Amino acid sequence: MCKQLTEKDVCEIIASHQASKEKLLSILLDIQDASGQNCIVEEWARVVSAELDLPLTKIYDVITFYEMLSEKPRGKNIIEICKSTPCHFIKGVNIVNIFEEELCIKMGETTPDNLFTLQYTSCVGACDIAPVAKIGDEVYGNLSKDKIVDIIKSYREAAICQK
Amino acid sequence: MSKIKQVLSVNFGKIQPDSVEEYVKAGGYEALKKAFSMEPVAIINEVKAAKLLGRGGAAYPAGSKWEQLYEIQEFPKYIVCNADEGEPGTFKDKMLLEKDPLRVIEGMTIAGKVFNSHEGYIYIRGEYRKIQKVFQSALDNAEKAGYLGNNILGTDFSFKIHIMTGAGAYVCGENSALLNSTEGKVGRPRIKPPHLAEVGLFLMPTLVNNVESFANVPTIVLVGGDEYLSYGTPDSGGTKLVCLSGHAANRGVYEVPFGVTLRDIIFDEEIGGGVANGGKLKFYHLGGQSGPIGFPEQLDTAYCCKVMRNNGLSVGSGAVVVLDESVCIIDYLKSVTEFFIHESCGKCVPCREGNTQLQFILDKFSKGTATEADFALMKKLSTTMAKASFCGLGQAATTALDSCLKYRKAEFEAHLNKQCPAGVCFTNEEGGE
Fold first, then answer.
1. What pLDDT, in 10s, does the model give residues B70-122?
2. How far is it, in rounded angstroms, from Cα B150 to Cα B147?
3. CB contact residues (below 8 A), chain A span 60-79, against chain B
4. Which end of chain B has the smaller Cβ count within 10 Å, N or C?
């Protein structure tokens, strides 16, 4: 859907972090952002391994440990719904149900157009506006059915514009 | 009289967060200038006199931590700020990072001067990536204005701060796990001793303090330790940012002096404002998921690290999650335990397996299949996890359970008889209450 990430792009990302081993997390997050699939495929993990002179197992140790990193392709937009107690016990709306209905997918799934993946997250530190969902780096709070419908619509429209 | 006292939050919403000019106009960097004219030991003595207790949750005396590091004669030393705010219900470090980042930077820079350190790191959780940009901009501006980087304030002292990002792992809030993650490794905790003051970042002596702890440093330097102490109680100096959430009428971050009561925090009109929608308070969860649960009969306890601890409560991170009577304690604890199952790093058995088994037992209570023997088992499991877990995560995972077993055993017992006082469990069989 968007331009394919090349080895050159990956190397540029690594260079932008001075190919520093301690910047591994930032490097992997940036590659994932640029991947268009919200994941780090083995091909790129191998490039990182070679450029940083770290064993491939170590790269995978890190990718599989951290919640925000994925080795499997995901939707362009990850919708993360907070399930920690300050959000979970807010009454009135079941935002998981609303997202599932609006996107026609179940928790953990990706829409057929690869635009959205729905998943849970632990607290994102926005409990004052619970219940919240985080999409990319944006946090949306005080969610109601109408708000959720509008949010999804805005992401769909943005995707059409990009095409 | 107002129960609010603004020390850390004075600039919130009043200045452009990354503007050095506006920060200086609001009195910023006066403390750094003063610190440059002071002996390092004198600054440490002020921090000690202030009785600044670590604001990340452990409430360890910052002055002692600083003193220990100062006595170690090995260089380089590193200054690390723990901004991996992950305790559910906590969002006060976010406010500081987002609304007054230069206060945190100034605090770290003063620490750099005290320990003659030239490199600082701030580890900001991945969920706050948007705020990392604001913080970076504040760092760049401070460097341009000569308050950071080479030759600070025209002296030969240099100090740089690097932002490191997390990527979604609660355990990285544990200081040794945080250092591993800062080094680009998997964020599993290290065995202690050696303490981080001796063997920290890149195996060198390291100071790790929380965002709010660093943010207090400029004030302490400026007004002096004794004055700062007087804002709070004789045991807990200064103010605390508390985070009201859940069913609190006024959710948000509020700055209160230590010594106000829990009742003030939850019910004062200027703070929590009571329970939303006229609900009745059932319990409140303090200091994050790893903290204890408090009940209405404990509301008159003073919010002070020592008094709270003596009463089986805790200030912790400053989180206060308010829950009304619609919430079932068993159901709540299941949600807490689910969190720990998810966030356990898997390194040690008591935490990894203990939380899973605990959830299994709690589930039996919510389904009405639990027996008397499950109480004993739960208690034993909780003790094992607290004593044998490798790090604070597993050790504290059953703190909330312990509070409930101690003060609300009746609600567990009701579930043995398939009665859920909140009407949450058994709704399939009995159609609720």
1. 999 999 999 999 999 999 999 999 999 999 999 999 999 999 999 999 999 99
2. 9
3. 61-62, 65-69
4. N
Residues of chain B numbered 165-204 and touching chain A (CB < 8 Å): 165-170, 181-188
Q: Which DSSP string do the residues of A114-150 spell out, in sequence order?
A: SSEEEEEES--S-GGG-S-EEETTEEE-S--HHHHHH
Helix/strand number for chain B, H first, E second: 19, 9
Q: Quick check: is B10 in a domain? A: no
Confidence of residue B314 (pLDDT cuts 50, 70, 90): very high
Q: Is the peptide bond before B193 cis (omega within 30 degrees of 0)?
A: yes
Residues B95 and B227 in one domain: yes
Residue B1, pLDDT score: 65
Residue range B48-52: mean pLDDT, rounded: 98
**Residues B337 and B390 reside in one and the same domain:** yes
Task: Establish if B295 belongs to a structural domain.
Answer: yes
Query: In CATH, what number is assigned to the domain containing residue B49?
Result: 3.40.50.11540
CATH code that applies to domain A77-162: 3.40.30.10
Q: Is residue B4 part of a domain?
A: no
Residues of A in contact with B252 (CB under 8 A): 128
